[in-house]
Design a protein that fits this description.
heterodimer; A: alpha+beta; 2 domains; seven-stranded mixed β-sheet; five-stranded mixed beta barrel; B: PmbA/TldD fold; 5 helices; 6 strands; 39% strand
């Protein structure tokens, strides 16, 4: 039996999409339709306030007509057949097929997909979700008497979409959950905090947070009460998967979105097939990665999800694409054409972007570092695809002395450098691996859900 | 629909208060890359946002208040049953929350702030095409820089608001957002190249002044070619302009 992926209104309109595409392609050489509904729930519990909010919700239809030069699109609110058919007619009426590039509609493909879940958010009442958040907040608050506030921020995000062009008839229901928990502690010299991120595509089974994890989180917050500023300079570092992921996201993530190639905004476009880092560097993007927060089954331009090897053994192989940039650059498409919602254009965007797993036990990385810094949690990052500069701020880092992590803690710790120099310094790749949960903008807008991660890395970096 | 939702809210005896907003947006977008218009888009959105406030109590019995919200989207889910179900959902969320009590504001006189550019509303797509041409011409007259990307957005947004304390208000406004990328280069094909990204937001076309902005930002892009990392310094600095933002 096929599980129903779309609600009734979307499913009804979906059955007409083939005819709408055919009608538009009487005028233009390529047409497509995307139905998109996005929404969710946010529950926030802290020691002073509780909040339950519906996340901003959108539901609409994107009609795309390509005339050989330009993508013409109409974003129509809702899923009513009449307005969508009229918008399709109005969209193509002034157009004609002009000499230009052909769009490859892709191989024949169809399917309905749904995120596998053990505890679907829809199976719990709002009261049950609130109670679970309260329980985690209560456990976090009671870890230590110095905790003055504990914050639990839960989000569930549901994306429903259907895509059709002349070779595709696809539908998906993608369910994401995320929990951001923070502990604020007070000491003689002020207040410090620490936070943790949990979640992925799936249900509440991803949010089973143990007392040990909460105790570790609070323990670091207490350590941060005595944190020092690091002496600026170059250090051997061991980066956790979270810091590795941020480095990857800001360097060979944003820097290889091929719409930026087209706009001459990415230095990587001049380095295809060239060595850009240590032979230990392997970076991929994969929207089909199981349970990744950035996972989906097909992108907003109808490409089925699959992995893209961006950097292989230190050589930059290829970027991640949207339809237009791949067509204009004459390169194969990847499944990375993503929209914030139906009111926005699709761009080349990351999904789950990661440094590939290595084989070295993490304890050996510390031994090889000898004296250095263990960077454990990121705080923010900034991309610079044109200049290949990198700036990542870590929430904290511990000292490594004689191959062992000490109790000396530095916060915050900034990493700056030139991307090829940073990647050339990678000297060890650990055997433990993880992905975080996050949201990513294109510049200051166009937010989509992504993850970034990797293994522990041994490398050198300029810290300050 | 606005009145139907109002009627449904008014019948509720379990709510301390409510606010209803009908928000409509329509807009045009233009995206340019070197030598081509990548995409032109027209978008429309229509939504009803309901915020409700409910009396609740903390476990000790003291009075508290909870807020909840829900959105109804025409064309996706609006009918009489869905209105009641949506209010039920918002009310349920509000009933679970236990914050210190507060109420909703009542009517007050509001200033008449001009938010709308009628000229822009008439032909948003045409206005964007003209603005893009003006931008391209202005950059073309500047030495040593070229534009490799531009994004232009125009939007008209209307909000009608009603609440349980008697507020009846509405407003229409326009917004414009223009972004572009300038590149400047020293030397030949493999020379040193720098990028200047510009982002402007205005309400009226007449306030864009693209020629002046291009002149100013082109100078910045050319200056960037000569920029070097500063030496280490600890002491006084002066911040001005957008660095203060």
């Amino acid at each position: 039996m096929t599980q129903s992926v779309l609600p009734v209104g979307m499913a009804e309109l979906r059955s007409h999409l083939g005819a709408i595409v055919t009608g538009m392609e009487r005028i233009v050489p390529y047409a497509a339709v995307l139905l998109s509904e996005r929404g969710g729930l946010n529950i926030r519990v802290d020691s002073r306030e509780e909040r339950i909010e519906e996340l901003p919700r959108t539901a609409g239809t994107v009609l795309t007509a390509y005339d050989g030069r330009t993508l013409h699109e109409a974003g129509v609110g809702g899923f009513n057949l009449g307005p969508v058919e009229r918008a399709a007619t109005d969209l193509v009426r002034p157009l004609s097929s002009s000499a230009g590039r052909d769009v490859d509609p892709g191989a024949e493909r169809c399917g309905d997909f749904i995120t596998p879940m053990e505890i679907p958010p829809a199976s719990l009442s709002t009261q049950e979700k609130l109670d679970r958040c309260r329980d985690i907040q209560d456990r976090l608050r009671n870890v230590d008497g110095r905790v003055i506030n504990a914050v639990v921020n839960y989000r569930e995000l549901t994306e429903l979409s259907a895509f059709a062009n002349r070779t595709a008839d696809l539908a998906q229901q993608v369910q994401r959950v995320a929990m951001n928990i923070s502990a604020f502690v007070e000491g003689p010299d002020g207040v410090r905090y620490n936070y943790g991120l949990f979640g992925g595509t799936g249900g509440w089974e991803l949010l089973d947070i143990s007392d040990e994890e909460l105790a570790r989180l609070v323990g670091v917050a207490i350590e941060l009460l005595g944190a020092q500023r690091i002496e600026p300079g170059e250090y051997p570092i061991v980066a956790t998967p979270w810091v590795t992921g941020t480095l990857v996201h800001e360097s060979f993530g944003h820097g290889v979105e091929t719409d930026m190639f087209l706009k001459e905004r990415a230095k990587a476009s001049q380095h295809i097939g060239k060595q850009i880092g240590s032979p230990l560097v392997n970076i991929w993007d994969d929207p089909s990665y199981p349970r990744g927060f950035g996972s989906y089954f097909f992108d907003d331009e109808g490409m089925l999800a699959g992995p893209t090897m961006i950097v292989e053994d230190g050589v930059f192989r290829r970027g991640i694409t949207d339809l237009y940039s791949a067509t204009a650059l004459g390169i194969p498409r990847t499944a990375n054409g993503r929209r914030q919602d139906y009111t926005r254009k699709a761009y080349a965007r990351m999904s789950n972007t990661a440094f590939a797993r290595g084989a070295t036990p993490v304890s050996e990385l510390f031994s090889q570092a000898d004296d250095g810094i263990y960077l454990e949690m990121w705080y923010s990052g900034m991309e610079d695809p044109k200049g290949w500069g990198i700036q990542v701020t870590c929430h904290y880092g511990h000292e490594i002395k004689h191959g062992r992590v000490t109790e000396k803690i530095y916060a915050p710790v900034g990493i700056t450098g030139y991307v090829p120099d940073v990647l050339a310094s990678v000297a060890g790749v650990g055997d433990e691996w993880g992905l975080d949960t996050g949201s990513c903008g294109k510049g200051h807008k166009e937010f989509v859900r992504v993850s970034a991660g990797g293994p522990h890395l041994l490398m050198k970096a300029r810290l300050g | 629909m606005f009145d139907a939702i109002t009627d449904a809210l008014t019948k509720r005896t379990d709510l301390l208060g409510w606010t209803l907003r009908h928000i409509t947006r329509r807009g045009s977008q233009l995206y340019a890359v070197p030598g081509a218009i990548e995409a032109v888009r027209d978008v429309a959105e229509d939504r009803y946002v309901i915020d409700v406030l409910a009396d609740t109590t903390v476990p000790g019995g003291q009075p508290a208040a909870g807020a909840g919200n829900i959105t109804l989207l025409p064309g996706a889910d609006i009918d009489a049953a869905s209105i009641d179900a949506a209010i039920d959902s918002a009310s349920l969320h509000a009933g679970l929350v236990r914050n210190p009590p507060y109420g909703l504001p009542g009517p007050v006189s509001l200033p008449d702030v001009p938010l709308l550019d009628e000229a822009l509303c008439g032909d948003m797509a045409g206005a964007l095409a003209a603005a893009h041409q003006e931008l391209a011409d202005a950059v073309g007259s500047e030495a040593g820089v070229r534009m490799t990307a531009a994004e232009l957005f125009a939007e008209e947004k209307s909000v009608q608001l009603r609440n349980s304390r008697g507020i009846e208000a509405s407003q229409r406004g326009t917004s414009l957002e223009v972004e572009w990328v300038l590149l400047a280069r020293n030397g030949g094909k493999d020379g040193h190249e720098v990028e200047a990204f510009v982002e402007m937001q205005r309400r009226r076309l007449a306030d864009l002044h693209l020629n002046e902005a291009v002149t100013e930002r082109s100078g910045w892009a050319r200056d960037l070619l000569a920029a070097r990392a500063p030496s280490q310094h600890e002491g006084a600095v002066i911040l001005s302009g957008s660095a203060l933002a």
